[in-house]
Amino acid sequence: MRNKTILLASRPQGTPTLDNFKFEEREVPALQEGQVLLKALYVSVDPYMRGRMSDADSYVAPYKVGEPISGGIVAEVVESNTDQFPKGTVVLGNLPWQQYIVHHGNGLRKINPAIAPLSYHLGILGMPGLTAYIGLLHIGAPKAGDTVVVSGAAGAVGTVVGQIAKLKGCRVVGIAGSDDKTSYLKQELGFDATINYKTATDLKAAIKEACPDGVDVYFDNVGGEISDAVYLNLNNFSRIAICGQIAYYNSTSVPTGMRVEPILLKRKAMMKGFIVSDYAADFESAAEDLAKWVQEGKLQYQETIMEGFDNIPTAFLGLFSGQNTGKQLVKVAAREG
Amino acid sequence: MRNKTILLASRPQGTPTLDNFKFEEREVPALQEGQVLLKALYVSVDPYMRGRMSDADSYVAPYKVGEPISGGIVAEVVESNTDQFPKGTVVLGNLPWQQYIVHHGNGLRKINPAIAPLSYHLGILGMPGLTAYIGLLHIGAPKAGDTVVVSGAAGAVGTVVGQIAKLKGCRVVGIAGSDDKTSYLKQELGFDATINYKTATDLKAAIKEACPDGVDVYFDNVGGEISDAVYLNLNNFSRIAICGQIAYYNSTSVPTGMRVEPILLKRKAMMKGFIVSDYAADFESAAEDLAKWVQEGKLQYQETIMEGFDNIPTAFLGLFSGQNTGKQLVKVAAREG
């Protein structure tokens, strides 16, 4: 059977390009006892994957040149040699970018198609949703009445951060890169104020205006000068959850800029980097809350879905120019069962 | 009675100089009912006072131009109109830089001269000791076997940080600015390794060598490139207590340099600024531990004592060129009682 796969062709210097990816056709091997044949339905593309394309020392193992790139995928069992995953089961797993995948079943999680659209399990009910929940509530620890600022606010994580903060009674300010995005945040998701960082002439002043009582919690997805402007408005005892630093992912030298440390001292503030996978013990209760809020209509959720396996690299590259509103996915195939 | 006082003559631009101070003679007013006449014995000079000399927005109120500078002083009651503080009592207070001070008694703390030399109450048993204790144990939270790095290691706070970390079973590495200081830390205080940042050719490599298992806790008094070199050796889940940032206290523009945020993310690390005065609820138990360790000989303590009221500004300025080993004080007068 014909099966396309996407390999890492070379490690990017700076911003990745299509040249860093290579398409290849491979034979799908015959199923052994205990194995399943998976058909990829939805493929997740995420900013953290940029780190894995380099061989720098990082918290996740780098992809290998000449081997398939992998990530979160929702797939359907289309052939099965195990009772554990009958034909027609939909699963979530960390899987290679391939149309079909032969798999032993370990690490696959069954998805209940009744609770939400299948793609939600790569977003609000998956890693991005859990990242928002845990970073905001465990590190940011907002109290009702606090002002919460989130950067990358229109992304898969940021949209959930802002909505949970609203559910907790906070004033929520979102920073994003287009008027379409800020309108969406304000009108659809109920953010109290928004800032378009691309058109703001004085970011520090814009944040001060949006946060008249200062900033108590900052959920940071981006870093760089956007974050500097937030730091200059921090309150005493504020908390900063560092979730992403997309401003630096493509930088080829050690990032420099304004020092945050003197501000942390002056404001007695706390800053912590985190990766959601370190909080596995909290996933179950967090996922329950998220599913409940989605079903009750308290969490809105938006996806940008590109169609076609061949478009996976393009969808990934779009993350770095801010193409997506909400979670960026690629739909590779329709469900058969 | 003749009484000298030291006023803030002008706000410093950059590094303070003697010109920023002004000596004046004032009459000592007659005692009212309920008041005491204090004679200053020991005057504390501390880096944080630099911040109060500016009128920048800060966590402590700025000194006023034309008014006396104030800080921690150990003084003796030489006349008393209150039973609460009989003549001969030794007290600790936040007091103006004057030889004699008329005081209503509020906020003065009695000192027991039997437990330790009087000057210790401005150091290891006072704010610097409490700062070390609380910053290290509450924020750094070292576990036995952890590697703890302290910058400004030979200062009033740093010497206590390192010794407490040793008591807790950690590997302790101190960074200081002379071979005399590093020898003292290693030979007298039992630090496991030391780095002279003025002679090290490659600070990052020097820290790596001194911390073969990486850095779990960093207690930072200095900021700047010394801290950058530590950041580059942080372990996953490390903790950074920001106590001081003396590298920037005299800077006249917004400090810039290497970004720490991407490292905090990569290392899932936590950084928190703190000021000991926010932890008043913990002072009593902390002070008990410190006094016990001093009396048991488990905490060594060193002071640099300059003599004479007129030398207070000089002693203060010396803090910024690293003149002192241990706590810098000025002895103004001998005890009468």
- Structure summary, number of beta strands of chain A: 16
Gyration radius of chain A, in Å: 21 Å
Count of separate structural domains of chain A: 2
SSE-based structural type of chain A: alpha/beta
Q: How would you name the CATH homologous superfamily of the largest domain in chain A?
A: NAD(P)-binding Rossmann-like Domain
CATH topology of the largest domain in chain A: Rossmann fold
**Beta-sheet strand percentage of chain A?**
25-35%
Largest interface: A-B, 34 and 34 residues
Average pLDDT of chain A: 94
Order of helices and strands of chain A: EEEHEEEEHEHEHEHEHEEHEHEHE
Task: List low-pLDDT spans of chain A.
Answer: none
Overall geometry of chain A: globular
Number of helices of chain A: 9
- For the record, what CATH class of the largest domain in chain A applies? Alpha Beta
Walk me through what this model shows.
The structure is a homodimer of 337-residue chains. The first copy, chain A, has 337 residues and is an alpha/beta fold. Chain A is built from nine helices and 16 strands. Chain A is 24% helix and 28% strand. In chain A, the strands form three sheets. In chain A, strands 3, 4, 5, 6, 7, 15 and 16 form a seven-stranded mixed β-sheet that branches. A six-stranded parallel β-sheet of chain A has the order 10-9-8-11-12-14, with helices on both faces. A two-stranded antiparallel ribbon of chain A has the order 1-2. In chain A, strand 9 (171-176), helix 4 (179-188) and strand 10 form a beta-alpha-beta unit. The relative contact order of chain A is 0.16. The mean pLDDT of chain A is 94. At the A-B interface, strand 13, helix 7 and strand 14 of A face strand 13, helix 7 and strand 14 of B.
